[in-house]
Design goal:
Strand content: 25-35%
Radius of gyration: 17 Å
Order of helices and strands: EEEEEEEEEEEEEEEEEEEEEEEE
GO molecular function, one term: transferase activity
Strand order of the largest sheet: 1-4-7-10-13-16-19-21-22
Organism: Draconibacterium halophilum
Mean pLDDT: 96
Number of strands: 24
Protein name: N-acetyltransferase
Helix content: under 10%
Family: Belongs to the transferase hexapeptide repeat family.
Pfam families: Hexapep
Distance between the termini: 50 Å
Length: about 190
């Protein structure tokens, strides 16, 4: 079978799954039939991608992550090892709530640290960073750095993932940012 992506021999790719070119799927991972995965993605060991999940291009899913129905990750998202997405607010084994799944949207460039938990019904803004072990219970603003249980904003990060100082200039890229009310924006060059 000629395919434009790589999958390890132990990976299970259900017929009908859409997988972009250059994507790599590693040991013991499972991609369900109606999942859509972009190009140049990496799914680490023991990753589960559920039905109707959408991953953009260049999404990195580290080991032991399950991405359930209702989750959408835009381009350039990083999902750290063993992080968790939920899909029901009040799960009970004896009560079927599949019709109550709440979506999660992870916007372009966002990073979720190892062992973090994202509660369903939330949106994580562009280039935000969720610290390792954090529990996100509400929306996260673009460029926000959040940490703790429950997660609270502790600062701002640049598109490169560098914590910004008071001058709001990324020391790595030189990009300049501006606070517009309670939100951070990139200052666009007018040249």
């Amino acid at each position: 079978m000629n395919k434009e992506y790589y999958s390890h021999e132990t990976a299970v790719i259900d017929e009908g799954a859409q997988i972009g070119s250059g994507t790599k799927i590693w040991h013991f991972s499972h991609v369900m039939r109606s999942a859509k995965i972009g190009s140049e993605c990496i799914l680490g060991q023991n990753v589960f991608i559920g039905n109707k999940v959408q991953l953009g291009n260049n999404v990195k899913v580290q080991n032991n992550v399950s991405v359930y129905e209702g989750v959408t990750c835009e381009d350039d998202v990083f999902l750290g090892p063993s992080m968790v997405f939920t899909n029901v607010i009040n799960p009970r084994s004896a009560v079927e709530r599949k019709e109550e799944f709440k979506p999660i949207l992870v916007k372009k460039g966002a990073t979720i640290g190892a062992n973090a938990t994202i509660i369903c019904g939330t949106t994580l803004g562009e280039y935000c960073m969720v610290g390792a072990g954090a529990v996100v219970t509400k929306d996260v603003k673009p460029f926000a750095l959040v940490a703790g249980v429950p997660a609270k904003q502790t600062g701002w990060v640049s598109r490169n993932g560098i914590v910004l100082g008071d001058d709001l200039i990324c020391p790595e890229s030189g990009e300049k940012y501006n606070l517009a009310g309670a939100n951070l924006e990139i200052i666009k060059n007018e040249s």
